Amino acid sequence: MDATSLRAASTALRDSAPLVHCLTNTVVQTITANALLAIGAAPAMVDDPAEAGEFAAIASAVLVNVGTVQQRTAEAMRLAARAANEAGTPWVLDPVAVGGLTFRTELAADLVELRPTVVRGNASEVLALAGAGKGGRGVDSTADPDDALEAAGELARRTRGVVAVSGPVDVVTDGDTVVRVGGGSPLLTRTTGAGCALGAIVAAYVATAGDLVTATVAAHAHVALAAEAAAALADGPGTFAIRWLDALDAVDGETLLRAQLS
Amino acid sequence: MDATSLRAASTALRDSAPLVHCLTNTVVQTITANALLAIGAAPAMVDDPAEAGEFAAIASAVLVNVGTVQQRTAEAMRLAARAANEAGTPWVLDPVAVGGLTFRTELAADLVELRPTVVRGNASEVLALAGAGKGGRGVDSTADPDDALEAAGELARRTRGVVAVSGPVDVVTDGDTVVRVGGGSPLLTRTTGAGCALGAIVAAYVATAGDLVTATVAAHAHVALAAEAAAALADGPGTFAIRWLDALDAVDGETLLRAQLS
Amino acid sequence: MDATSLRAASTALRDSAPLVHCLTNTVVQTITANALLAIGAAPAMVDDPAEAGEFAAIASAVLVNVGTVQQRTAEAMRLAARAANEAGTPWVLDPVAVGGLTFRTELAADLVELRPTVVRGNASEVLALAGAGKGGRGVDSTADPDDALEAAGELARRTRGVVAVSGPVDVVTDGDTVVRVGGGSPLLTRTTGAGCALGAIVAAYVATAGDLVTATVAAHAHVALAAEAAAALADGPGTFAIRWLDALDAVDGETLLRAQLS
Questions:
Q1: Is ATP-binding included in the keywords of this UniProt record (chains A, B, C) (predicted)?
Q2: In this structure, what CATH number is given to the domain that contains residue C142?
């Protein structure tokens, strides 16, 4: 993939300011909303069955993240995913800690049947979701992205969508094309919600870019390049998270030309 | 309005450290608590029917923000508003995204019948709450505060309270007097929860100041002046939010004399 | 107590990266997760009955904080505490605002019967939990840690665990030994969640250190020393909270030798 295609994705995002409907875990709602605002998108967190379907139908994209899921929000997630499908709206599934816990693993399996536009997780989660592994412990991954490549490809063909596996080098695939995104910073794993916010950023990009793989890669490159800029200014994980938000705002189409793709 | 009256409101707030009971959305609980601590108030987030009425009865003021409302917290909001009324405690309604979603729009209409001391929202929300518009998309406003002035005045007369409409220039009215508060920074709209925290800051001010319009204007001026100070030190939306908390702490009665009132 | 024993506790923590299962209030989930990541632990927030028992059984330690408790999460807390006990896993109880509100006060009394490994609260909360006081208003304490020393000792003997009372000087006791931890910064009380994060840090330390009093003291010293470093770099409560996370990361076994113990 040529990094120049990422520049167009960035422009499309900034021009359209997509409304991203997030059904996400309560730990990361704030950083997710702030990350979306920083990249020029509009976040909205509506996670109750009373409103989730109604709102998904008018959103530009939907994020479903099962990090702190419960019966009530699980129902909202099903309604939102169905409403998104009916409206032809793209939606992203982030299967946090799937594999390790029964309730969310069953929910995630149901959600996969609804064919998420993009699945974004770590290697353990993607392996578990594809039925090929037992998952990690909580949000940690005990596997490398490339270990999950085959499972990711299979899952992508099953959902006819894209699967992105986060790690030191991220892997994005639609079951045919495979793109790797390098760079970033280890500090991304030392601040809560960076990975979850990436899921929301993917949703924002797929709302506005034509090609799904390009949009997903652009989101990953945006996050990685912002992390590099933030790490250069950070004195530790606290200042890193704040500088990362500043850098998400500063990254533009020209910056994305420096993405480490392979 | 003369800015010297704001100085007295600031002193009253710092001297009494009001306990502000917040029933607010989960995205902004942290920044709301931190903003209240920064201005010298004491925050407490108690949003379950099992405790909300009991706590509202002992609080200095109550904030009801419907941002991520659900059946359970809606019931807690009704109980808290009634307990506040019975105790003669002021309470603030923030009708986040009202107009755009059925469940919260009906809830907000019920809450208006309980006569909130202050309503704080953007123009779209105030228009929708007054029955004069269809609301914006999520937290965005598609209208200007002055477009909502007539609706705000009507609503204020109906609740016999104050209505504040946030925007580039904020408008505060009790249906008779109209005060405009200028200044601030566009970065306030690039960080999640700044507007919601303003609702809580209004609650803290009305808990301690004699005149409702003065208290509400003081809260808006406090936020705007802190935003200007923060913007001068910020490198982007991340550092802005942090510097804004520092500045909320630093603003005092003397600072409020520089408020841009008209 | 000799500060050299704290150095070993620090090393044990960094070497084992304990998985801390947090059932905590929604206001402080983010700072709690970030504080745990900063000290080298792995946080996971799972607070629904559908998963809490299953997860507590595989965690290294469990935190139960009743700050925004409701029926659903109260049930999850009971399940997690029982699962922790069955697995021989240490767990920490943070009785936020207990004494002042009926529902949580009854829940906390039940949880004490399940014998938490460590109870961490302010003086008002510990007095209320021990049946010796009426509690403060919300998260504020209206009493001094030493006022709660007798109640803390009694409670510790009843639970056969450790009780830590936070204040300007923290008091840690198992009902026999008493250790005081000085230092810290008043800014810790101006940022939401610092005390709640301390409860989680205690959980991380008791997961890995042999002696309960030593582990609890090490956690308090870690927080206090980081607060001193952060205060030196802070311009207000906003920058303090961020610098505190940086400093939690930077504190190591050598730093702990400077703990103010008595």
A1: yes
A2: 3.40.1190.20
